[in-house]
Design brief:
There is one protein chain. Helix content is 37%, strand content 15%. The chain has 261 residues and is of the alpha/beta class. The protein has one domain: TIM Barrel, CATH 3.20.20. Pfam families: AP_endonuc_2. GO terms for molecular function: isomerase activity. This is 2-keto-myo-inositol isomerase.
């Protein structure tokens, strides 16, 4: 297993301390964010690059550009600025998330957004990691739809899928696309009372034996199909963010996944 860790797994740790924790856990790959915590809004990208190099850390992605599939207003400018930051910080990719407020976005608009974003990524040597969201109100739920749009936009080689085990489960997806997958987000839901259609980010904890999202079968299916990239922890639940010892909690989840596989 090749694990990565999203900064949202331990958002109260300053960046340097986060990197140190990642190394102690035996990992070298991370994702940084523009929300929890807002590294982009608080840290010069040159400092991020220098600290990552000092500690032997690879920054897989910056998470996330939203809503990438509504290419209007301030989005083009925000996309360019985020891409500039990614390049300056040494990040390899930008995570891109679709509109998630119940508004439908036409397939042609999705394709147009991918076409518009493509040169921004190419000019900076970045990959676009596009993450379908499985929520019922999401404007892009299915990975198969996204692949069609990437092909229509001529985006092969620039875009990859973000396979998120939470969103895969919520969308009721059964098909895996290992050759298209650039990164996998893992998190679990253990609350026995919440219906699948009512699951929210706030329910997402670290993967353990009570997980309802079938993380282990998803991980195994991806590995068996040839995916050889990292699996990045992305829990959103307050109980994870406020854990007294996030390092121990992450290690417990890592050990559980390894032993169960």
């Amino acid at each position: 297993m090749r694990f990565a860790i999203n900064h949202i797994s331990a958002p109260n740790l300053p960046l340097a301390d986060f990197f140190q924790m990642v190394r102690r856990l035996g990992a070298t790959e991370v994702e940084i964010r523009n929300d929890l915590p807002d590294v982009l809004g608080s840290t010069d990208p040159a400092e991020v690059r220098a600290e990552a190099q000092r500690q032997g850390i690879t920054i897989l992605s910056i998470n996330a550009l939203y809503p990438f599939n509504v290419w209007s207003g301030d989005l083009p400018g925000r996309a360019a600025r985020m891409a500039d930051y990614a390049r300056a910080s040494g990040a390899k990719a930008l995570v891109m998330c679709p509109l998630n407020d119940g508004t439908e976005v036409a397939f042609d608009d999705l394709v147009a957004a991918l076409k518009a974003m493509k040169p921004i990524l190419e000019e900076r040597g970045l990959m676009g990691l596009v993450e379908p969201l499985g929520f019922p109100i999401s404007s892009l739920r299915k990975k198969s739809t996204l692949i069609e749009a990437i092909k229509a936009a001529g985006g092969e080689g620039v875009y990859k899928l973000m396979h998120d085990t939470f969103h895969h489960h919520l969308a009721g997806e059964t098909e895996f696309f290992p050759d298209w997958t650039g990164l996998v987000h893992i998190s679990g839901v253990t609350d026995p009372d919440v219906a699948v259609e009512d699951m929210l980010d706030a329910h997402r904890v670290l993967v353990d034996g009570a997980d309802r999202l079938e993380n282990l079968p998803q991980i195994k299916a991806l590995l068996d199909a040839g995916y050889n990239g990292p699996f990045s922890f992305e829990p959103f639940a307050a109980e994870v963010h406020e854990a007294a010892d996030p390092e121990a909690a992450l290690k417990t989840s890592m050990d559980h996944i390894r032993s169960a596989l």
